[in-house]
Structures are given as C-alpha cells and as structure tokens.
Amino acid sequence: MIKAILIFNNHGKPRLSKFYEHYTEDTEQQIIRETFHLVSKRDDNVCNFLEGGMLIGGSDNKLIYRHYATLYFVFCVDSSESELGILDLIQVFVETLDKCFENVCELDLIFHMDKVHNILSEMVMGGMVLETNMNEIITQVDAQNKMEKSEAGIAGAPARAVSAVKNMNLPEIPRNINIGDISIKVPNLPSFK
Amino acid sequence: MALKMVKGSIDRMFDKNLQDLVRGIRNHKEDEAKYISTCIDEIKQELKQDNIAVKANAVCKLTYLQMLGYDVSWAAFNIVEVMSSSKFTYKRIGYLAASQCFHEGTDVIMLTTNQIRKDLSSPNQYDTGVALTGLSCFVTPDLARDLANDIMTLMSHTKPFIRKKAVLIMYKVFLKYPESLRPAFPRLKEKLEDPDPGVQSAAVNVICELARRNPKNYLSLAPLFFKLMTSSTNNWVLIKIIKLFGALTPLEPRLGKKLIEPLTNLIHSTSAMSLLYECVNTVIAVLISLSSGMPNHSASIQLCVQKLRILIEDSDQNLKYLGLLAMSKILKTHPKSVQSHKDLILQCLDDKDESIRLRALDLLYGMVSKKNLMEIVKKLMLHMDKAEGTTYRDELLTKIIDICSQSNYQYITNFEWYISILVELTRLEGTRHGHLIASQMLDVAIRVKAIRGFAVAQMAMLLDNAHMLTGNTQRNGICEVLYAAAWICGEFSEHLKDPLQTLEAMLRPKVATLPGHIQAVYVQNVAKLFATVLRGQEGVPDRQVAQETSQLLIDRLPLFVQSANLEVQERASCILQLVKYVQKLQQKEVQVAEEVTALFAGELNPVAPKAQKKVPVPEGLDLDAWINEPPSESESEDEKPKAVFAQEEQRPTRPRHPEVDEKELARRREARKQEQANNPFYIKASPSSQKVYAETPGVEHIPVVQIDLSVPLKVPGMPMSDQYVKLEEERRQREKAERKKKKEKKRRKDKCGRGHRAESGGESEEDITPAHTVDIVTEEMPENALPSDEDDKDPSDPHKALDIDLDNLVMGATRRPLVDNEKLPVRAHRPPDALKSPVEGGEGEGVAQEPKKKSKKDKKEKEKRKSKERKKSKEEKKKNKHGQERGEEPEAGSAEEPAAMAAAAEATTPPAVTTAEEAAVPVPEVVPDAAPVSEPDEPKDAELEEPKSSKHKKKKQKKEKEDRDKKKKKRHHRHHSDGGRAESVRNGEEEEEEEPLPPMSNYCLLAENPYIKMSYDIQGNLQDGSQVVVSVIFENKSSSSSFLKCMEFNVLDSLNSKLQRPEGASPHEAVTIPFQLPPGVSNEARFVFSVQSIVMPQKLKGTLAFIVKSEDSSTHEKLDFKLHFTCTSYMITTPCYSDAFAKLLESGDLKASSVRLEGVSMPFHHLLARICFHHHFSVVERIDSCASMYSRSIQGHHVCLLVKTVDQTVSIDAKCDEPSLLENVLQEIKQTFAKC
C-alpha cells in the first residue's frame, strides 16, 4: 500500500499532497515538513530510500523519493511495495506529467494542482497502484479532459478567454524552468511496463 | 438558453478561479495568512450562490487551500452539492475535494450514499470512474455496506476502465466491511484471469494485500498464482505475486520447493532489476523456510549471494542499498555464504551514503565469528576514528558493543581484549553512549569472574585519569563510565594492587563536578575501598597508614556532605560518621578491619533484565487495590518516587555483627539498601531469588576458573586492543601447534556444549579456545517466571477482521458455504447457497458439452487410479507408505462423485475450472507446476524415498501434463463459445458470475428482430415497496456494421403498473436510452416501474423505437414487446433464521396451499438452488431431502415453503398471508420445472 504521495519543492512548499489515510490538516502539514526535512538534507548521489520510521504508520514504512530539478516526489509506502517498483512508478508519474503538460515545470504543478490530482488518480487509487502503463493513463486523462471541454461548450468560452487574457501579462509563466533531466529513463528497468 | 448561460459565465469571469488564487497567494508573500482569509471569505460568499459553476470553482479553490493546511471541513455540505452536479466537470471537482478532506467522522458523508450509487450506475464510465476514485479515499463502514453490492456489479462491467477500479476498491470495502469478503471473493478470484491486464493486475494487487495480512487463508490460491507467475509478462504483477509467495512459503514448505526452479529461471532471464531483486528476496524466504529440512540448496544460495554481490557492486546507490538489505536476510540462516563477502561489506563502510553504511554495519553484526571478531572490531575502530559526525560515530559505537555482546558474548575469546576495547571507546569524544559502555563494563566484570582482576586494574586507571572524561558531563555522556569504574573498583577491591591510590583518586575535589548519581556511587565505593585498605593494613604493625586513610576520608567527605544531591549527601554523611567511629576505635587500637569489611561481604549475582517483570503475581494479591486510604493530592506531590522505593518492606540483610554499634549499623544498612535499590546490578535479596540461587547451578557450581597464563595479564600502560589482536593470533598459533602434537581433542574444560560441536567440525571456528575459559554467569530469573508474552498483536488492526477462511469458497467444497446472513445487503436477488449446490447445466450451450466432458473426466479418473494401483504394487514393501496410499483411496473414490458435479460446473463456467478440478482430482496436481497445496499426501516424499517410483511418477507427470495442456486448449475454446453469452450478461445482474456456479440466468427474451435483441429481468426494489426494476439488455445483432442509436423505450401503462418517467415528462412520453450500440455490442438499461397490486401477474405492452445507422443510410425501426411481470418478480430474497421461521408458521395468519411436481430428476440441492435462484427464495433449513424456504414480497408478504422430494416427486407445501399471491408463485415454480 502507498500511504501518501507528496510533491514539494526545494523549499518545502507543498505542490501536491495525497494522503491515503486520514490525518488532520495540522498533522498533514507536519508530515510534509518532516519529510522535507529528512529528504532535503540528503545528497543527490545517495540512495532514494529512507526508513522514515515514525512519520506515517511505523517501522514497516519507507520513504521512496526522487528529486527532479526543483521538485521532490515522495512516496510513503509499506513493505508490500517493491522499492524499485515504486521508483519506477515515480518515473512513470513524472513522464506522464511531462506528456500531459508538454514539458512540465514546477509552475504547471503550482497552477494546476487539480489536473495533477486527476492524473494521479488514474495511476494510484486508494493507495494501490491502478495503472502503470503510461499510454493507458494518458488516454484516460485525455478522454476525461475532452469531456470536460465538451461540457463547457460555448458557455465556457468567455471564461477561457478571460483566463487567457489574465495569463497574458504574466511574467512568471515562462517555461524555462523545466525539469532538466526529466527525460532520463531508469536505465535498469527496460522491460518495465 | 445558451445566451443565459453565456451571460451567467460573464458574470462569473470576474470571480477568482484557482489560478487567480494561486497567483494572489504568490503575490502576497508577506501577508499570506491575511490574504487567504479574505479569499476564504470570498469563497464563503460564492458558496452561497445558486450557480453550481460558482460553487464548483469555490470548492476547487478550497481543495488547494486544504493542501496548504487550512481546515475546509466546514464546506463539506457544499462539496456534496458539487459532487451531485450532473456535469462531469463539476462532479470531478466535488469528488476530488471530498477525497481530500472527507473521513469517517464527516457527518455529511451519509448523505452521499445515494448520489454515489447513482454515479456508480451512471451510463457514463467516467462518472463511475470518478465516483470510484473518490470513494476509495473516504469509504466508511456504512458506505461500504450499502455500496458493496453495487461495486461488485461493477467488477463485471464491460469497460476494463471501470472493472479495474471496482476490483481495486473492493480491498477498501473489505477493510471497512469484512463481511463482504466471503461473498465477493469468488468474483475477485475470477478477475485474476481477466483478459484485460489492468484488471488482472488490480486483482493481484488486492489479493496480495489481503494475503499479506492473513496468508494462510490464501494458500489455496497458490496454484493459480503459480500459473500467473509462469505466464504473466507484466512486471508489476510478477513482483506482486513473487512478494506474495514470499509471504506464503513460510506456511507451506512444499510450495517453496516448487518455487525455487521457476524463480531461479526468472533470476537468470529477467533484465528488470526490480523483478530480479524481488525474486532473490523470495528465494531467500524459501530458503529460510526450508533451512531446517533441506540442506541441498547451496546452489540457490550461491546464486542469490552472487546476484546480490552484483547489486552491491553496482554504482547505483539504490541497488547497493537493497543488495545489502537482502544480504542481511540471508545472513540469518546462511551466515557462511555471506561471510565470504566480508571484503565487500567492509568496503561499504566507506561509502559516502549513510544509509548504506548503516546497512553494512547491520550485516557485520551477523557476520562475526570467533575467528574474525577481533579483526572486524579493529576495522570498525579505525572507521570510528575517521568518521565525521557524531550520529554515525555513535551508531558505530553501539554496533561494536552489539557485535561483541551478542548472544551472551558468544564470540569473545579474550575478555581482556574486550575490556581494553571498552576502555578505548571511552576516549571517544562527544558520545551519548557513555551509559552503554558503562553497563557493558559492569556486565563483563560481574559475569566473567576471571576477568575481574584485569578489569579492576583498567578501571583504576580510568579513575586515575578521570579528568580526561569529565569534560562531558551531560546526561549519558562519557563520564557515565566513571560510574562503572568506581563501582567495579569498589566491589572487587580485593583485586586492586594499590587500593589507597584509587581511594585518593576517588576523593579528588573534582569529583564533585560529576553528576549526582555518579558521585553517590563514588561515595559508596569509597567506603568499600576504605574497608579493603583497612584489611590490607591489618597485620602491619605500623598503624599509620590505616589512620592516615581514615583521616583522608574525614577530610574529604565533608565535600560530599555538602552536595546538593540528596543521595550523595545522605550517603556521605552516613559514611563520614562511620569513618569517624572507626577512627575513634583505631585510636583505641581496636582491630576494626573485619567488621568494616563485613559491611560489604557477600557475592553478587547478575539479575536478568526482565526478571522483575516476570515475577508472577501471587494468588490473591490485587496490585491495583489501595493498601491504605489513597493519599491526598498534596501528599503525593511531596513524595518523590525514590522515597517510595526506600519505604519498601524490610529485606533480609547480610550477616550481622553484633560487635558493631547497632544503631550505626542500622543506618548504614539503610543507606546500603537504598543504594542497592537504585543499582540495577545488585541482586535484590528476596527469599525467592535466594532459593533459585541455591537450586540452579550458580556461580559456585560452574567449573573452576582457569586462567591461561599464555597471555600476560597485564599490558603495560594504557591498554591497546591492538596488542591483543596480535597476542591472540600468537596464542592461536601456539595452540594449534600444541593440538597437533597432542592430537587430543578434549581440551575444553568448560561444560558448554561448544566442545561437542568442535569435535565434528574439524578446523572450524569453534576450535578456537577462549584465552581464559570463562564462566559466563547466567542471569537469574525469578521462580516460575511467566513465559514471555511478546508478539501480542495489535487488537485494533483492521486486518484482523479480514482473517476469514476462504478456502471452501475457493475450493468449491461444501465445508462452509456462504450462509444467508453472510450475503451482502443486496438490492438484487442471489441464491444464498448457490455454492452448496452447483446446478447442472443451466440453460444454453453448456449442457451440450457436459456429457462429453464428464466421460473424459471419468476416463482420466480411472487412468489415475490404475496407475496408482500399479504404483502401489511396486511399493508393497514400504508398509507405512502403503498405508498412506490406502488412506488416500477412499478420498479419491468419494472425489469421483463431486467430480461429476465439478465437471458440470467446469463445462459452463470456465473461470471456476481450475479450482473445481483441484478439489475433485487431487493427484494429478503433483505435476511440477501445479498446486503443492492441494496434494493430499506426500508424493514428494515418495520421490525421495524410492527412486523407482519417482521415475514412474515422472512419466506419469509428463502424461498428465499433456493431458492438461489438451484440456487447457479445450477450455480455452469453450471460453470463446461462451463468450458471446457471457458478454450479454456481463453488465447485468451479478448472480451468474458471483459464484462458481453454472450461469443460470433470469434474463429471458423480450423481443427480437434482425437488428436488435432484448432480454429482460425484473426485480423488486428493496427500498420502495411499490417499485420494481426492469433490467433490459439490448444487443445489436445487425449483421452489417450499423449503429443503433436514438433508442426510445416506451410502455403502455396500465392502471396497476406505470413506467417511471423522468421528471417533467408527459405520462406517455418514451424514455430515451442513454447509449448507442455499435455492431455486436450489448448494453443494459434499467427502468423503474411502480406497481400497486402485486398479487397477480400481468403483462404490459411496449415498443422500442430506434434508428439503424449504417454507412450509407439510416432507417427508423420499431420493435414491439410484452413485458411479463410475474409474481416471482415481486419477491425479494430475504434471509430468515429458523427460529423466526418457526414463529411465523405458528402465528396462524398464513394460508396454506400445495403443489406437486412429478418426474423431477435433478438432485435435490439442484432443485433448491433453482427455486432460490429463479424465485428469489432462501433456504432456511435443510434436512436430507426436505427443506424449508422463505421469501418476502416487496410489500412484505411472507412466503414459506416446505419442499420434500421422494422418487422424482417433489411436493411443495406453502404458506403465505396472501393466498392469490401464493397460488401464482406456486404456479410459476411449477412452470419453471416443467420447462426442464
């Protein structure tokens, strides 16, 4: 089981948090803070597993994370998950985000948390891995987005126009902060689907 | 209309959306909290508006704020509102918000039940998907109970997208509502073989989660998983299965044997590291489970260790880490194989990654032996010098101590070396583990008698150099070792060369800066040393030294009397008085040494750390009861816990010496007792422990210490452990040479069994004799110590509830089928005991194939028995084996009967085949790739015992394998021919696929034409007594590739029954069916009818209008039909207990009627199953060929049946409170059986 999925940036600001067990908002924030504290002090060239211990659940749990440019993707899992499998799942997740947002960067996650949730929900459901095939995930996400668009129809047009106008004078939307090494595939898992 | 919407959204566009909110927060970095609180106010305003789009937008923003840590539970009701929007866009927002902030305590959650149910059955698969995803996050026991059945239906949805989600969410449902596990399990199992890989993987996922917690219940699935493992190519699935096997093997060693080969193959073939790693892990688990029985797996171990070495050597830190992790698992059972990689592991100690270093340390712990302990510890000491960062250094320190002290100092051959290591460790700066080192020193000094002399010398040196250690006075700092040093020097002062010097060292003024508890020990042991000095001076004519010593104490002790620490103060003043008294006596030239020494006479035994806990509570003693009146608050505040300790009842003290002043002695005793109470190393002299001491071979009974003087006892200067390493080497060499000369094996004088093992082991590590034969005093335990009560499982573990026996479900046996009350709360009908009674054939294609199948099965059965008999004759000599075989025979014979049934089941339900077959035909399963679990006897053993038979067996296995392959193909084929049919009901009611039962269907043909086929089923609605639900399956039959669209369903209402039309529709308007049908596809729609009277059957005329759209043309078509509402369709399967049933019959309100059916040839349980299934009854009780059944109509009429069968004649006596309803139901039952 996956206990929680957290995305935060290099400063510990949460970009997405998904807990598959209920915690109060305060506890959630504390978990995010502590996780950030644990993860951020590790070098990039050390292993990606952390025995988180007391953080969520107990000693059975591990933190498995990856660090991409400005973002940490952290999965808190118990012993029923394969460590390398989860690392790969993170990779799939990030690659999916990359496809869905076309060259994803932190800003995409900041402004479209809901979309990230929607993508994630096609991958992990209730703490269990639902789909690991990227194409399948993208197909389903696209189909749902299409449906959303068709529902909006003409009624949605003005809102879209307004939001386009709003976004026009945005100095911060430049897409140059992209996640550099995002296209790096996990080399040792070629047959992983 | 459109204009209005556009206008609405123009108003809206100046509301903040999520992006605006995020932007705003980013622009208000300084006053973020203030900004957000204004935003929340805005959101509250937005939520008050009627426009759902505005609300959805607000909820979306709340979801973001929730992530930032703001409590948004106040908007729970608005979230529910958004969830129930008909638009997917908003629904998705609503469900997302709900999944983020709903939990079991959210009260509005109960309002969502119907909404979720509606979404689950929505024609739009994405509505369903979103609902499932959301539900998976906030499912509560209530929701689970209410929706379990709906979700189960979805498990057979036509779309894999829905199927996989429904399968996955079942795990959450099981957790919250464990009762659903048994009824849902067969279908879950079926999904393991779903054609869609996603669904399959979801099912594997769920079962693995279930099995991880309660593995024994899932052992019977092993064959199925085995098949999946050998056939699947999806690494995710493989990893899960392999992990599952890792959990199962400890329970079933035979499984392990079978796994080794395929796993080894996978290890060789796979390129995916994750899979390789899990394979290695499971092989290790297998090897652990086999380690006792099978010695010949060295090849597999070697393979694992080799592969792990590759992982550890990899540059990828993750692989390195995992390799070490797995290595530590091997270590537990096969330490030798790991020890050969010591170099690699020591190398990892240098790694820059701390996690890896710690892992390597863990490994070292298990790798030590007598031979290499010194070497390893030396390396660790080197690392400690290099290590930067106290955390890691402390970790190293604890590891060194752990390694040395493990299993009662098993690997230490030279305790002098160990003491010097401990002393070296004290030079470590800034450690927090002073206490640990101290307790080791104490432990060794107390328990290893031979070492005391050396230990005391070292400790005296430490005390002398105390200034080096006092720098760090914080809690648990290194100065803690002074506690041990002082105590050891005091307690074993007879070994001290120069007690006076030590005494002086202990009375230095600097001691007063030490922590209180250490000072207290100092003071106490100063007294002991004083006694020793006095005794040493006894015979000496010159009294000066003794008197000077007294004077020294009298001079120095007042420093401690002034101590702020009570303990120190009390002891110091005690001892000061004592010394003053002694001085007085000395001046009178009285010999006092003996008396003073007697104060501290006696031997101390170590007490096991848990001894206190294990003392059984005497009968009649209530520890919770008050002894006196409970003290008032203020009193208890004054008293410190230590004071309570001192007030304990009088304990027997050491021998008294009447010469000494009684009063003085009493005071000393009190002080001493107090010290004992606080010193864990003092044995508490309670009567019971004394007794144990006398009974068990205590210190005195352990063979006499022999000090091997080949090692110089004193190493000049500060001890250097390195010297010992060298000395030890030399000693070993010498001993080896000696041994060769003597060629006498018996060198060991200590009684431990080690010598024993050494004899067989040749030049094994056990041959190394300890430098001094050491008696390690065992720790004392109280009399009748309670057995350890660890491993208590957490009673609140939700998984405990899921410890449900599923075997009989899986195996299709009749041990414990689902009983009525185990059913899910259902809105539809299902035969409650369908498992008990697999009905032959069902209708349709299955029947035709059945006889053929059966004969084949019979043939196989015969063949099998023949071969067994052959085998038996060969094994004539093996008597006990023979007996086993015989024991098996009746089983096989009786298995034949169910075999017919199983064959029938097999013929129609492909997914159930494997299990049914296994139950019926256990022996063929000996085939290597099949279920080890279902082997009834131990054919494997036979294989080992008798090569002949095993040869024979192999042949047989081969043959059977072929057989199986053939069968598989056949099965496959059949599956296809069934396909269309299965398809047609898939989306419909669940009974067909629910259990491994031949698909009986209540769906009957409604109407048919060249374009479309309609079949329907009617069920009562449990929630509304005046409603029935008609499920109609539409199947596009058109040969050319034409679509059916714009289907409209209409019925001519009668007075009694009316089609429920959407709100606002006119009474005769047709209902539009919400889907189109591509060619060859079928789908189901449900229509609700309201009925008034249910006592009579009736028919309604209706029409279906639709457009057939082919590539070039489209035509309007019409199809007329007649809906037949039988009285049966108003019945609802309701469980009833036999006592309630009896009461009902006794009540006398019921009218009786009866019917006889002639020439019914089917078995009785099949008959019952039919009645249950087609007429929605449940079996209350069954005795032989007689059964009572019960059902209830949607309007609450009770219908009771008593079914008896005698020679193909079935008589049904029935009672009901509504005679005409009863008459009609009976007629319908009669018709059902007339048809077959």
From TrEMBL, chain A:
Q: Which part of the chain is the AP complex mu/sigma subunit domain?
A: 1-147
The record, for InterPro entries, names: AP_complex_ssu (IPR016635), AP_mu_sigma_su (IPR022775), APS3 (IPR027155), Clathrin_sm-chain_CS (IPR000804), Longin-like_dom_sf (IPR011012)
Q: Which organism is it from?
A: Paramormyrops kingsleyae
Flavoprotein listed as a keyword: no
> Topologically, how does it sit relative to the membrane?
Peripheral membrane protein
Fetch the SUPFAM superfamilies from UniProt.
Answer: SNARE-like
What are the recorded Gene Ontology BP terms?
Golgi to vacuole transport; intracellular protein transport
- Protein name, please? Adaptor related protein complex 3 subunit sigma 1
User: What does this protein's UniProt record list under function?
Assistant: Part of the AP-3 complex, an adaptor-related complex which is not clathrin-associated. The complex is associated with the Golgi region as well as more peripheral structures. It facilitates the budding of vesicles from the Golgi membrane and may be directly involved in trafficking to lysosomes. In concert with the BLOC-1 complex, AP-3 is required to target cargos into vesicles assembled at cell bodies for delivery into neurites and nerve terminals.
Q: Which family does it belong to?
A: Belongs to the adaptor complexes small subunit family.
Keywords, A to Z, come to:
Cytoplasmic vesicle, Golgi apparatus, Membrane, Protein transport, Transport
Query: Chief location of this protein?
Result: membrane
A single GO cellular-component term from the record reads: cytoplasmic vesicle membrane
Q: Which compartments is it annotated to reside in?
A: Cytoplasmic vesicle membrane; Golgi apparatus
Automatic annotation (TrEMBL), chain B:
- Chain spans, region Disordered: 623-684, 724-1001
Q: Where is the composition biased (Acidic residues)?
A: 777-794
One CC-aspect GO term: axon cytoplasm
Compositional bias of type Basic and acidic residues: which residue ranges? 648-675, 725-738, 817-833, 858-889, 937-949, 977-988
Q: Where is the composition biased (Basic residues)?
A: 739-751, 966-976
* Alphabetical UniProt keywords: Acetylation, Coiled coil, Cytoplasm, Golgi apparatus, Membrane, Phosphoprotein, Protein transport, Repeat, Transport
The way it spans or sits in the membrane comes to: Peripheral membrane protein
Q: Where is the AP-3 complex subunit delta domain?
A: 660-807
Coiled-coil residue windows: none
Superkingdom: Eukaryota
Q: Which family does it belong to?
A: Belongs to the adaptor complexes large subunit family.
Annotated function:
Part of the AP-3 complex, an adaptor-related complex which is not clathrin-associated. The complex is associated with the Golgi region as well as more peripheral structures. It facilitates the budding of vesicles from the Golgi membrane and may be directly involved in trafficking to lysosomes. Involved in process of CD8+ T-cell and NK cell degranulation. In concert with the BLOC-1 complex, AP-3 is required to target cargos into vesicles assembled at cell bodies for delivery into neurites and nerve terminals.
| Name this polypeptide is given | AP-3 complex subunit delta-1
